[in-house]
Amino acid sequence: MPQYADVPHLGQVVPALLGALGVPGEDGGLALPEARSACVLLIDGLGWELLAQHAADAPVLTELASSPLRVGFPSTTAAGVAAIGTGLASGEHGMVGYTFEVPGAGVLNALRWRSHDDGSDLRGALPPREVQPLPTTFERAAAAGIEATVVSSAHFANTALTQATQSGARYAGVHALGDLAARTLDVLSSRAFCYAYHSELDLLGHLYGPGSTAWRMQLRHVDRLVESIVDGLPSGAVLAVVADHGMVTVEEKLNLEDTPELLEGVRAFGGEVRARHVYTEPGATAEVTAAWREVLGSRAWVLPREEAIAAGWFGMAVSDRVRPRIGDVVAAATGTFGMVRELAEAVESNLVGQHGSLTSAEQLVPLAIARG
């Protein structure tokens, strides 16, 4: 099983930037110079290994990215966005998957904030700031007198995930790459903290595969975006470019719905194709663990909840609030393997590119630093 203890965590980046801005008590353990303004730009789906493999398509990013970060488990957008928004790993912020069970409310799709079973809206049953009640990095910045701004797609402005992870920030909704660059530079022109987000590289990786022609063409646009922001950085501004996960092309799929041995004793599924939360019937965890290990073999790391927690999958600490959201059994895919549910998750099951697991291709992302 891969170990990344010596690699800084994505959650350290914003506390380090806030520390560089002089916010008391903030220190992510990353050596950053004193700054007048700071921004973290998250490129969804840009893995460290993918960037290295396609360096010619992203010369600016490649030159700036001198070291990797690890994103923690699961390597998925909800967890990564929450790491930016809290400065913590999933065991504390609680976004433990693309989908996960919240006791009393069923399985939540954290991106859509809907029931993963029937699609019903869960914002009433699961208020975002109750699911993620910890102070956000944006609230901490604002409390220190630093204006905090989120520069992201206008479509995400009022989503539940935005409320859960970005409360305390002014939301600047944008519509295209030029808009994103311009608004980011506008924020950085005064003493402020900014989080900017770009989603389309991840989208094309899912649809066509990471490294596909479409993905590479989008990476070139991303590199131009970064170059535009770097060229316009005002004096005293710091830009940190990161990602929430890498991605692999899934070449072997196992349909859980057609595998009776993997359904026995299981009452619900969470997670995604590369990282599964398996919620068991009472008393069935040991048998389910054994069955999943037997069927999946070397294609996945399979651990019961307490062993996954002890192994540090969800960070150094797992709160009592978060613990029940983790599957009784957790399965993380190796290689290019995927655990699909073709009927229950038809769209997700058919995506070419996937992520969520512990492999270096998914866990490691760039940390690229530029200074004005």
Secondary structure layout plus pairing:
Blueprint: H1 13-20, E1 37-43, H2 48-53, H3 59-64, E2 65-70, H4 77-86, H5 90-93, E3 99-102, E4 106-109, E5 114-115, H6 128-131, H7 137-143, E6 147-153, H8 160-166, E7 170-174, H9 177-188, E8 192-198, H10 200-208, H11 213-232, E9 237-242, E10 248-249, E11 252-255, E12 266-272, E13 275-280, H12 285-296, E14 300-304, H13 305-310, E15 329-333, E16 337-340, H14 346-349, E17 353-354, H15 360-363, E18 364-371
Parallel strand pairs: 1-8, 1-9, 6-7, 6-8, 11-16
Antiparallel strand pairs: 2-18, 3-4, 4-5, 9-18, 10-17, 12-13, 13-15, 14-15
Helix pairs in contact: 4-8, 9-11, 10-11
